[in-house]
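Hey L., structure's done. Input below.
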Amino acid sequence: MHVYFYGPTNDKPELRQAYQQIYQALKQADLWISTNTKPDQVQVSAEVMAESKQSGVPLMDRMDAFIIEGSTSDPEIGFLIAHAMALKKPTLYLYRRGMIPQVFSHLTQTELPKFIKVVSYTETNLSKAVLGFLTTIEGLAVREIPHLKFTLRLTDSMDEYLHHRTHNTKQTKADFLRDELKRLMDADDDWKQFQRKRRVD
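Output:
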């Protein structure tokens, strides 16, 4: 999955912070992120790069989705919206709550196709908006960031086992345990049924 995130160049600290927050949220997902907000703007798989060079199709056309921070006026935003509409690409248009987004000076929200989602955000709900959009894209797995602290006391043999499994790898003992727990969750049909019921309720 390839996503392009665009944020107009500006010196406003609150927008620079928002860009970083969006980027960090994107990094939680299993995808390639291209963005004008970072020095290494283009990040695509070797396969997509090779196909693009061979066919002459611009890399922008190979993006699966677009995310645009549109709080400030910028001519590039109009181009990206038009591009997304022409290619029918899922797009998230973000703007700071209390501002009038640029896109509404040309189109009303009802005139935008359903695959272009417009969301006003605050600092507290920005990451949730990005992650919520990503989960609507079929087949995209979003990794939750661990934030709950949990004390777990281990026996000596358990600790020795974890050391054995993670020795000479880049994985920590905590990462190993999290991955094993996630594997159990993914294979647990009762848990999946409970989650579906909870979403309906």
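Residues 156-200 form one domain. The two ends are 31 Å apart (CA to CA).

-- N.
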